Amino acid sequence: ETGVTQTPRHLVMGMTNKKSLKCEQHLGHNAMYWYKQSAKKPLELMFVYNFKEQTENNSVPSRFSPECPNSSHLFLHLHTLQPEDSALYLCASSQERGVADTQYFGPGTRLTVL
Amino acid sequence: DAKTTQPPSMDCAEGRAANLPCNHSTISGNEYVYWYRQIHSQGPQYIIHGLKNNETNEMASLIITEDRKSSTLILPHATLRDTAVYYCIVRVEGTNRDDKIIFGKGTRLHILP
What we know:
The structure holds two protein chains of two kinds. By secondary structure, chain A is mainly beta. Chain A is built from no helices and eleven strands.
């Protein structure tokens, strides 16, 4: 247990569906991250939040919409996804954005888009 | 692009020390070396990090060369549970002075019984 939980662990959705991924951290951290891990590709950083403010968006398509209502919770809202969006979506948190801040990862949500 | 180079795979006998190398020849003076591992279908797990000095914790030891151009992660007594992909990461400073973590392809470590 890393103190970062993600729900659901598995999700299957159609291209016209709307769904949300949830991440919660119990570590008192102030920075939270969304990563995407596709088969046979390196981990890709998607979004970064620091003290509830989005500080980074790595050219992620608008069909992915993050939300950070407080420092403990992070959501990723999904709509009109494509089959190539199928991947493992990982949430992470760290004390604060900056040098040498260790990131702790959740178990991930395995998403399949049909 | 990741700033590190790692062998794609390695084998190690159970009970022996596993030594995982990483090259980071373009590392800057204020960049840290981090190691994570990812067991199949799980999230990455933090192992250890260092700047200049060698580091040791309950999981592993990190040996950084004096010129900081390479490092070695040492798992002193490897077990089957250590089978995973091991990522060596150098922190990159972004355009807004926010550093990024860029994961490369890592080393797939197989622990052999």
